[in-house]
Amino acid sequence: MELLWYIPNQVLPGHRGDEVTADHNSLDTLTAQAKALETYGWGGALLGTGWGRPDTFTVATALVARTTTFQPLIATRPGYWRPANFASAAATLDHISGGRVLVNIVSGKDNLGAYGDHEGDQAHRYGRTREFMYLIRRLWTEENVTFHGEHFRVDNSTVVPRPLVRQPRLYFGGASEAAERVAATEADVQLFWGEPLDGVHERIERLKKLSASLGREHAPLEFGLRITTVVRDTTEQAWADARARVAVMQADHNPHPSVGQQRLLDLSERGEILDENLYTAPGKYGGGGAGTTWLVGSAEDVARSLRRYADLGITHFVLSDTPYLTEIERQGETLLPLLRN
């Protein structure tokens, strides 16, 4: 079981309700979070990406230089980097960090025009993503790579230095049919948001069958869960705090949610609480992405829920709650020991 957190490299303070505003994104603040993750036994943290945020790769590099075991899960977009540039940068950081780099490939919407990128329809977007992942794998493992695809090309390309021990693991998300075909063929880990157990089970089985039908050439696809975990000393306190936070949230009127985001938003129609403690109300009042649904309860409650996901085949967990540093420590002390035992 891999247990990661989330570090919010954001320009504006108050991300997802974090009460830290002074120097919220300074290197010292982010380093304190990364070092706390090491202290309390987390494996590392996801670093988000998007135009208008600090450059994710730069932040990851700085945090690696200040830590010893922290693994950055570096989110990147195929249109923000060229495959050979990214393969070289990631291999270099992996080499000098002692093999700590993880990679999250993102194909969601972004302000593409701001950095000179463009995308066509969904088929074009995921076709480009698949080529990106296929090509960086080859560049990490082969020499003198020549590839002429629909979206990218390289000639006689060799990346040096190589990744230290193994190629960095490729995480990927997406719920559309096009996204799942990319995951089934090229990803190492398919990340799900916080859907109910039956939905996650259905998607795992579908992706396994799809991998077989498409002739997957890599090791079997693994599965991960990215979700908000609201943990308090007691079940009652956790629910009181969760409901109080939702009461002050503002509605988020996103006119074009992704397929995965829409799946989460639709969950509220099934009920406010699913699978004992999966809270769907945040999505109705402003929660997005991993903040759309929350697992709420005592450490024992949340650990029991996460173990149910593990029983379905989830082996990678990316958890978070705010305030970030406080929750790294609280959940590191109370939740992680239960999961490891």
TrEMBL record:
Keyword annotations for this protein, in alphabetical order, are: Flavoprotein, FMN, Monooxygenase, Oxidoreductase
Pfam families linked to this entry: Bac_luciferase
Please tell me whether the keyword Flavoprotein is annotated for this protein. yes
Database matches in InterPro entries:
Luciferase-like_dom (IPR011251), Luciferase-like_sf (IPR036661), SsuD_RutA_monooxygenase (IPR050172)
Q: Which domain of life is it from?
A: Bacteria
Under CDD domains, the record lists: Alkanesulfonate_monoxygenase
Q: Where is the Luciferase-like domain?
A: 1-316
Question: Has keyword Flavoprotein?
Answer: yes
Q: Which GO terms describe its molecular function?
A: alkanesulfonate monooxygenase activity
Q: Which GO terms describe its biological process?
A: alkanesulfonate catabolic process
The protein here is known as Alkanesulfonate monooxygenase
Source species? Paractinoplanes tereljensis
